[in-house]
Amino acid sequence: MQLATMLGAPGTAMRLPQQEWDSAVTAALVDSFTVHHVGNRFFRAQCDAVGVSPGDIRSRADLAKIPLIPVSMFKSPDAHVLLTASLNDIELDIRSTGTGGVPSVARRDTATLTRAVTGIMGTYRDLFAVSRGAGLFLCPSTAEAPEMGMVKVFNLLNGLFDDHTYLVRDYAFDPEEAVAYLNRWAGETTRHVVGPPFLVNRLLRFLELEETPLRLDPESLVITLGGWKRYTGESIGRDEFDAKVGTWLGVAPDRVRDMYGMIESNMLAVECEHHRKHVPPWCYISIRDVTDSAVELAPGQTGGIAILDATNSGYPGFLMSDDIGEVDESGCPCGRTGQTVTFRRRRQGAELGCCAVSIEKFIESNELVAECAVPEAVR
To answer: For the whole model, what pTM was predicted?
Structure first.
């Protein structure tokens, strides 16, 4: 199955027999590797240094030979050397700023952006099966945060809803307004909640403090992206989170879906009803030894998450992340094949670098300033 076919029919591609998936993802990645080997002097130098060329990649086992770009390079002032496309062909810069304050900048050319939008929208349709309803987005709009990767990914969802609203404005969030929006559509259409875990958790805490549970709808989804660790280092427990969603929003655990991705890659792994995050069929996740990233580990072993993405033509989409986790290639009860990925934690010493971390840190700093402000009456 060719890349264009996979992007156009992700539901079919995610249900290929495992051997056919193996061949399809390898072929797509060899084609992508060839493009960057030929057209990118910097990347070709990395290939020459380890003695690998497209002719050496004959099977999935050979994919581990492809040189990986550390995601830290996207923070470098000379990150433009990563580009295969010319700067004139770049249509969009996607940025993420973590606790260190140094942005990662990932530049998408037109072809990459078109493939990303097509693949993500098809994945949403296959995993979520939504085409109507009201979407409460607990994040800034793309107008307010046009370069934020998480917001761009969420924004693609709003085209599947009949109505939607963004309730983080000027990096402030009003839970009462969120409740009013959900109540407005009660009995009219299915209501969905979309946002990073910490902001959904803020809504849940508000409902708990007010002792006013909401009952959403049988088909309601709670969709999250952005990591489960706050900028303070405190973790949000998934089981506790799902239980609170059930108690205060009335949404069953199989309708709570998390996603995993990073701004440097087009790869977005979306959970099915069994809480397994399915790697899209045009991507391959390779788990690497944390002490030697050249060593690939077997499925089920824990190590560094490397992402090989066939959709990226702007720069080589063969990335070594700062994340730790595992892949599973066993069959999923939902019927999809290929790989599923589990994110465990960030690599020791790596900063928290997702968009959600930046939003949360800014919101909380603004709230502290507001709480400490001296009222006019006592000045």
So the answer is: 0.89
